[in-house]
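Q&A FORM
Asked by: J.P.
Topic: structure of Cellobiose 2-epimerase

PROVIDED:
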Amino acid sequence: MMNLMRLKEDIEKELIEGILPYWANKTIDKENGGFYGYITNDEEILLESEKGCILNSRILWTFSKAFRTYENKEYSEIAKHAYQFLKESFTDEQYKGLYWMVDSEGQPTVTKKHVYNQSFGIYGLSEYYLATGDKEALDLAKELFELIEKHAYDNVHGGYFEAFTREWKVEEDLRLSDKDLNYPKSMNTHLHIMEAYTNLYRAWKDEALKEKLVSLINISIDKIIDNNRFQFKLFFDEAWNSKSEIISYGHDIEGSWLLFEAAEVAGDEQLIAKVKNITINMADKVYEDGFDDDGSILNEADQTSIVDADKVWWVQAEGMVGFFNAFEITKDPKYLKKVFGLWSFLNDYMIDHQNGEWYWKVAKNRKVYENMPKVEPWKCPYHNSRFCFELIERIKKQY
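REPLIED BY: S.T.
REPLY: Here is the structure written out as tokens.
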């Protein structure tokens, strides 16, 4: 029996008693500002670790959203702590924009301006404004939007270039991480610019911003999604020729609901109808090809077989939102079964019920990768807290 109210209660308990307290109690660096940059799987804090801007922005988003949802003063104080560190340590006063990385004391160590990073700044800042009404935060989000449009937009082929030097000159190394390919455009960056612009448009109903948001939705449809197989292509040259054969099931299911959300926030009925079909087709493709027999979503495939059968924390979280979104659109209970299956898998294998937070990933045999940290520049509370917020809100609407 699929009991949605019980599911909502269980998810809310995990959010309020598991995820948020972990980040509130274990990660705040009261001495140097911001948040510790690295905590091992066995809860050892590496005090000298560098601090990533993406992690800081995602914590800013998480606790802003938590305050907006529950009006708990502790959450607003943590959001403010994240906001102040972003302003004081990650913001480049001379050339504008956000640095990639600072040391444990808040001094810049990697000063490149990656557009993905600027986008998460916008995402966190706009949520902080929506939660607190702090206009200075909204102004900084607008400034980042204008910087992206000024420096990163491709006036010839459309879309956005990946990365720049501190001075906003073309960067040779465009990658987000070592596993990425070094090409001038990527699915991942475009997905998260769209996500950021969606949230900024909630806070700031600007026509130029709306045009750019609609343009990003159309770029996703026309250039990034393979419209024969309804899966994202991952890397591109300047003219949008695909340079990768890898399929990322997590990005496909995450993208399916973020695209639909973007179209709804933009408020264009024709676009919503167009995106609705694509959303379901993308969810169906993950439904058909992306699941292991234990109810979890596999990580990556190529055109012929699974190439990475690990189960990664954020993929399962986004899967729950994506399939609940597909259920809301179609009312087909098959998607809801996947949501319950994912929740069961998360409870049994991914959530650390003893120490809080989730493990980074487990292997196909469901053994935890104990060498992977609980906290580092990419291991954050945004995917798993957002899944909780989304499902709590969406289930409430069903009743």
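FOLLOW-UP: Residues 34 and 84 are 8 Å apart (CA to CA).
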